[in-house]
Each structure stands twice: as C-alpha cells, then as structure tokens.
Amino acid sequence: MPETPNHDYNVPNAGAEDWHVPLNENFEQYDTDIEIRDEASRRGDYDPKQGAKFLETDTGLVYQGDGSAWVPALAYGRYVPADSADQTGNIVFGHPANSVGSDAVGATIGGGGTAANPNTVTGTFATIGGGRVNTSGGANSTVGGGVINRASGSNSTVGGGRGNTGNGENSTVGGGISNDVVGRGATVGGGSGNLAQEEHATIGGGLDNRALKADATVGGGNANVARGFGTVVSGGDTNQADEAYSTVAGGEANSTSAPYSTVGGGHINVASAEKSTISGGVRNEATGGYATVGGGEENTAEDFGATTAGGYQNRASSQGSSVAGGTKNVANGSDAAVGGGHLNGASGYRSTVGGGPTARVGS
Fold this sequence. Notes:
Layout: H1 20-27, E1 34-37, E2 54-57, E3 61-64, E4 71-75, E5 91-92, E6 99-100, E7 108-109, E8 120-121, E9 127-128, E10 135-136, E11 142-143, E12 150-151, E13 157-158, E14 165-166, E15 172-173, E16 180-181, E17 187-188, E18 195-196, E19 202-203, E20 210-211, E21 217-218, E22 225-226, E23 232-233, E24 240-241, E25 247-248, E26 255-256, E27 262-263, E28 270-271, E29 277-278, E30 285-286, E31 292-293, E32 300-301, E33 307-308, E34 315-316, E35 322-323, E36 330-331, E37 337-338, E38 345-346, E39 352-353, E40 360-361
Parallel strand pairs: 5-7, 6-8, 7-9, 8-10, 9-11, 10-12, 11-13, 12-14, 13-15, 14-16, 15-17, 16-18, 17-19, 18-20, 19-21, 20-22, 21-23, 22-24, 23-25, 24-26, 25-27, 26-28, 27-29, 28-30, 29-31, 30-32, 31-33, 32-34, 33-35, 34-36, 35-37, 36-38, 37-39, 38-40
Antiparallel strand pairs: 1-2, 3-4
C-alpha cells in the first residue's frame, strides 16, 4: 500500500476513493500512523466483513469526530468491532480510562469517568450510563450513573446515587447512599444504609432499614427491621416484625414476635402471641393467642381471645375475658368482663362488672 506525504498512512491501492486528501485534512494534527484496514489486513483475531473498511491507529485507538474535534472513542482490547460477523460490538464513551472486560460483548459505557476514577463494564450486554467509579459486572446489568455504584447480579439495576450495590439476580436499587440488595428480585427504592437481604425483599426508602427474609417489606422510616418471612414494617422508628407474616404499621419501638401478629402503631407495644393485635397506645402487651389491646397505656391481654379495649393498666388475663376501659381493672375469669371504672375485678366464670370503683365479682 502506498504511503501519504506527511504521515505513514496506509491506504487501499484499489478502488475509486482517493484516501490521501481526507486523511491529510483530518489527521495532520496527530503524530501517529493511521491505517484504513480492509479484509486483507488483519490484526490478531480481528475479522472484518467482506469489503469493509476500518480506521485504526498504531496506538490501538479508534477516533471519531469531524477533523476539528476528534476524540478517542474505542480501543482494541476493550471492544469487539461492531462489524464483527458473529458478535455484538461494545461501545465505550467518556474518559479513555473507562473500560470493558475482555470477555464482554454488547457492553456500553455512555460517558463519565476520570483517569483515577473510571467506569468499568465486565458483564455481557451490561451498561453504565455515566458517573464515575461505577461497575456493571452482571450479565444484562445496568448502572445509570452516580459514583461507586455496582450492579454485579445478572439483570440487576442501580439507578444512581453513591455506594449502592445490586448483588442479587434481578435486583434493583433506585438510588440513595450505601444501599445494598442481596436477594434475588429484591428492591431498595432509595434512602441510605438500607439492606434487602433475601429473595423478593423490599425497602422503599428511609435510613438503616433491614428486610432480612424472603418477601419481607419495610416501607421506610428509620432502623426498622422486617426479620420474618413475609413480614411488614410500614414505617416509623426502630420497629421490628420478627415472625412470619407479622406486621408493624408504624410508631416507635414496637414489635411483633409471633406469626400473624400485628401492632398498628404507638410506642413500645409488643404483640407476642400468634394472631394477637395491638392497635396503638403505649407499652401495651398482647401475650395470648388472638388477644387484642385497642390502645391506652400499660394494658395487657394475656390469654386466648382476651381483649383490653383501652384505659390504663387494665388486664384481661383469662380466656375470653375483656376489659372495656378505665384504670387498673382486672378480668381474670374465663369470659369475664369489666366495663370500666377503677380497680374493679371480675374473677368468676362469665362474671361481669359494669363499672364504678373497687367492685369485685367472683365465682
């Protein structure tokens, strides 16, 4: 092939196109050798289509532009030529330090990166939109942007933010800071320091929340934990749903420690028996199966099907017993009832005290 006058350009010696003029005009500013490659000119495993023409430099870079603002776009070793017959090419824009792994095909880096903080794609058909120090390592994974984000699970997505990781297959982090999704199909919408650990676990946002079992959900809030399978903490602060399918709707420092138990809200309420319920209030406890505390303060429903509707320091301590309200009332006979008042007690089977002070009904 003949050489051009002011650079060691190699150009085709057949065909109607005179390559000397465009090469001289567009590349005279560069101190490098330029070559138009054809099918007879191969480099390593480079395999162009029949009759195709390719632009390559001896520095391994392919440039694109209009001659006045050429920028390095793709580099051999970092991409598969888009014209390859049996593979899809990789596309790398942004800083030249951005890179695609040697085994990746169909990978894309849209931009961003710096010399010290490049973006890296190692997964097949993986994508990074921009930002810096982002890594997309899972097949078909995506990092939209941000900084120090990583999508390592196949089909995982990190939308942006800082320091987020999508480790699980099909997992998603929308954004935020230092969120981690480990489980398959798990999701963290945003916030900071949240963890969705097992399969299909979900955290909407907030701070330092944990969804630790499969299908567990934390809507938001601060330092809430959905620890059991299918548990839900909707929000609030330092709430815990520990056993399967239990729920804390909100409030502060509430907990459910038995399957299917529920705390609606309030402060330091504990539903510790299966299918027990506390609607709200402060320091209430439902310790019997199917037991209910409606609200109030320091009330207890201690046996199967017992109910304390509200008030202060009332106890329904026998099966089917109930206290409607008042203060310091006790229903400790089976199916016994106290309507209200103060210091009343119903201790006999199906005994009843309607109200008033210090009334006692026994067997």
